[in-house]
Amino acid sequence: MVVYTDEINLSTKGEVDIIDVTSEVEKIVNKSGVSNGVAVVFCVGSTCAVTTVEYEPGLKKDIPEALERLFPKNINYHHEETWHDGNGHSHVRASFMKPDLTIPIVNGKLTLGTWQQIVFLELDVRKRNRKVIVQVLGE
Questions:
Q1: CATH, residue 104
Q2: How many other CB atoms are found less than 10 A from the CB of residue 103?
Q3: Region 112-135: what's the mean pLDDT?
Q4: pLDDT tens per residue, range 20-42
């Protein structure tokens, strides 16, 4: 079994920056030489997430609006009592969205749907430099 690890470095614009990382993940899968297995995509940090979405302008507006409806910024978060950094909602959003994603690899290709892209979501209130780890396992 092959285990290959690489990373994607991102500079985000702040809350809620959505970045398509599909092509970078595909390049890492190609470099790994794995034909059949899985790619694990993991964002390092407690205020970010990765998921799949149809990366188009409408959904780039819908996702932040949905997050605001589900986890509004303007309510009390106990995290603020500890750190006073204005990002309690960011931590809650990230814990529900999750920091990882696993994609099957078949015949050397990620098994994504036609309109399905891998995206990184910045959920913190500030611009950040982020690291996404991609680990490919298989044969």
A1: 2.60.120.460
A2: 20
A3: 98
A4: 999 999 999 999 999 999 999 99
Task: Provide, for the chain, the percentages of residues in helix, strand and coil under a 3-state DSSP scheme, each rounded to the nearest 5.
Answer: 30, 35, 35
**Average pLDDT score over residue span 89-118:** 98
Residue-wise burial string across 4-23, b where 16 or more C-beta atoms lie within 10 A, e elsewhere:
bebebebebeebbbbbebbe
Alpha helical stretches, state H, the chain: 22-32, 57-70, 79-83, 88-97
- Specify whether the CB–CB gap between 139 and 4 falls below 8 A: no
Q: What is the pLDDT of residue 84?
A: 92
DSSP 8-class letter at 107: T
pLDDT score for 119: 98
Number of domains in the chain: 1
Question: In this structure, what are the phi and psi dihedrals at residue 117, rounded to the nearest 5 degrees?
Answer: -120, 155
Amino acid, res. 133:
I
CA–CA distance, 116 with 130 (Å, rounded to integer): 22
Q: Quote the mean pLDDT of the chain.
A: 97
Task: Report the predicted TM-score, pTM, of the whole model to 2 decimal places.
Answer: 0.96
Burial of residue 52 (number of CB atoms within 10 Å: 0-12, 13-18, 19+):
middle
